[in-house]
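Q: Sequence in, structure out?
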Amino acid sequence: MAVEVTAMVETFVEVDPDLEAHLSELVYRKWMIYYFPDRWRPNVLAAVRWYASCVDVIQIFGPETAVAYRAPRVADRDCFRPSQTLWSFGGRALWVIRAALILRHPDHPRAPNLLVPPPSILGALPMLLGRQPGYALRMPSLPNGNGGASPENAAKTYVCGPEPHR
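A: Exactly. Output:
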């Protein structure tokens, strides 16, 4: 599986305009977007939304290959290397983002709550990070004075060092 993912990643160099619109929606909804190795020529994209008890993650390896999952929040555990997941969905990038956006809040009574082993594709991003340690981070939008999100805040990108932990 790792060889196939590596080949797909090398072809994913430009962000599709529809995908960029969906990423902007994620930023608006308080997700952090990681571009590996940078925002202007990403090989892999990841989006992360933290909650008190869990984390939602989307990993995008190309327009046709992506995975989203919810994992329990564990101290000193990298969100890209979960040992268990509560929910996962894989497929085309736009459908994966849409599935993550409609996922119920973790506190909702019908939110996913059954722990299962993570899908095997989740090992691909940690493997790739070993070869490309840098990333750019796009922070969630901050509200402007009118109660809406400020486009200036959503457009800011920060270049960061080694892989993200939280």
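The first helix runs from residue 2 to 11.
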